[in-house]
Amino acid sequence: MNSLASPSAAPAAARRRLPAFLANPSVLVGGLLVLTLVLMALAAPLLGTVDPSRIEPGMRLKPPSGLAWFGTDLFGRDVYSRAVYGARSSILIGLCVAATSLSIGVAIGLVTGYFRWVDAIVMRVMDGLMAIPTFLLAIALVSLTRASIATVIVALTIPEIPRVVRLVRSVVLTVREEPFVEAAISVGTSTPKILLRHILPSTYAPLMVLGTYICASAILIEAGLSFLGTGLPPEIPSWGNMISEGRTFFQVAPRLVFLPSLFLALTVLGINLLGDGLRDTLDPRIAKRM
Amino acid sequence: MLMKTPPVIEVQDLAIPLPGGGDRGFAVDHVSFSVAAGEIVCVVGESGSGKSVTAQSIMGLLPKVFPKPAGRILFEGRDITSATPAELRDLRGRGIGMIFQEPMTALNPVQAVGKQIDEVLRTHLKLSRKARFDRVIAAMQEVRLPDPERMYHAFPHQLSGGQRQRVLIAAALILGPKLLIADEPTTALDVTTQAQILKQIRDLQRERGMGVLFITHDIGVVREIADRVVVMKAGKVVEHGPVGRVLDAPASDYTRMLIAAVPTLEPKRKDHVVTGDVAIKVDGLAKTYHSGGLFRDRRTVHALQGANLVVRRGETLGIIGESGSGKSTLARCITQLIEPSSGNVTLAAGKDGRAFRQRLQMVFQDPYRSLNPRRTVGQSIIEGPMNFGQGKAEAMGRAKELMQLVGLEPQAIDRFPHQFSGGQRQRISIARALAMEPDILVADEAVSALDVSVQAQVLRLIDDIQKRFDLAILFITHDLRVAAQICDRLIVMHRGMVVEEGTVASVFAAPAHPYTRELLASIPGRAEETIPA
What we know:
By secondary structure, chain A is mostly helical. Helix content of chain A is 70%, strand content 0%. In chain A, α3 (25-42) packs across α12 and α7 runs antiparallel to α10. Chain B folds into three domains: 1-95 and 180-262, P-loop containing nucleotide triphosphate hydrolases (Rossmann fold), CATH 3.40.50; 107-174, no CATH class; 312-528, 3-Layer(aba) Sandwich (Rossmann fold). Chain B has 19 helices and 19 strands. The longest helix of chain B is centred in the middle third of the chain and has 18 residues, at 191-208. The mean pLDDT of chain B is 88. Chains A and B meet through α2, α8 and α9 of A and α13 and α15 of B.
């Protein structure tokens, strides 16, 4: 009876529930949505698209037709092709921001959680970063340099790192007090091995969930930056750029805004559903830590 | 025909199915018993026997994973299994009071304790603020909480474990219930506190003539407090009857085993002569903690003050003390898990220059948390040897031998800790320590979390490996019965200091320090046994 409530039962239970992932409706729906959009981004050239950057002055603001399924924009570019290719930059940015902020955050978080003297210094820096709204920080960072996909990724990663650090640190603070960590110390295991072998695995489940939120928020913020004109340069097709350019013609041709907005909404919805579902399946308690 | 007053609580044929996939069909398997007014009935059993679930179902507090129980529960002759939630709420508090095992978690940490007792009155009665306050103070006085007016405003963390349990008893009894259900109320407490709480429950029960359903795993506690006993095993009632008959002339094998597994206070190693060389020497070990800092006052806690000890090979030194006595701090300083503020730990000169971590190993208290749940037991056992350069294949081979040595299947090495029981996990922890081929073993409450029957087996194993490997063992425990079984010598710790030292027989027979005397007098069930000099 008592073992049901013991903390060690939790990871064991998670292991058993792993195949049950897909039984969760939000994981299933979210996963399918994300998978479809990723496939769409990868297979963009095969989906009846034309070069998304080709400008045809004679085709400006044409309504939908057999040639251009969703019509053309101000410069005669194919709206459908641009939206499909736009998925590439959005998803690329989302994944890269999630991956880099997680890896950097995990490294910092492990060290800060384990060594008290590092903690005092690093966490103050992190608190400082957290005090600036993500969006403002990103705008500031992008405007320091020339806009490109890499710049946007860096600008979006930096504000996300403190969130990861705080999460990892909180896990480390609890796990390092576990007797099995003391047991590892007393058989002479080195500190890096203790961090990687005994403590890191406990962060996987919460990080997976946090990763999805970072991914979704990065996609949204990138679209926001591009909408404001501080994100990706206009020649790279991106949903944010398209919405921004289409805004002026919203009353004449609402389709210019509709398609990229729809894709953007579906992507973020899919990722968030996936994250919510993962959180429920993996560990309901971590919701509190975030 | 003679009209009898119905018992306070009568459980008839109670059956609670286990939610799917368990090793047995029922958590509580058609159990019947009753508690009359003015008697204390102990339900005794090992973990998983269904004793707590039975108590929870009487209170209508069964966790939601369980389906609705079958059978009847009669409170003063009235069936309460079909009571509405509102009726049950009224019954709890007025009719039945309950106290729990963990006095810390049973209290709300952010509310003053007086308010928490007051809540019972606010829920059930319509009284003025002043009248309620007076009743709460009276209730606190009745359980002998010191300075109730001041303590009314104290928060749970400011109270000791025993005081917290007293607050819970006050809250449970303030409405004068007919029945008190006590679910392992003293398990989390020190023996001296346990003795006080048991006496208190006994006194209150006599004064008020209420029935008490007392759930425990400790036969010693049963002996102290019970009028009648119900022995449970795997959801079934194995035996019940008056305390004298069940404990002194048990009818079932299981009860006999339970009683026999309780270690006696007779020092087992009276005739054991230690001739080994000194393996470890500890001089003036001390640990001081400082808290506070920039914006707060500095506070200094002397967790350990000037401990000296020597252990020879083949000898077991018991370190006895209650929580906060500094015994775990001593163990952690010796094993270099924390750095002592001053003092030295010297190991005997090793022939082969092996590292400290190889020569001194530790077995931890909690078998559920001392093994990494994500790693196979084999990986846990070979970790140490591989840290010191042993090859994986060789270490694995050795790990299999060790599994056999501690009484487990060598093939089980690829399993994960959750697939083992508590006792088996403790065997694995011992195998992990032995894999380092240590000279000295530090066992920190290594058998405290185990059921008595399992405890006896693990103690035998420790005894056995000591002989086999000529180990020096430092055995830390709060349980004097366990200490009597395995130790040659004892040191008794109190508030960070060693207050007494000597052979087990001499400490038990002629305790010199008042604290040792109090400790010995508090051992539950001791009155029935004589300690041989």
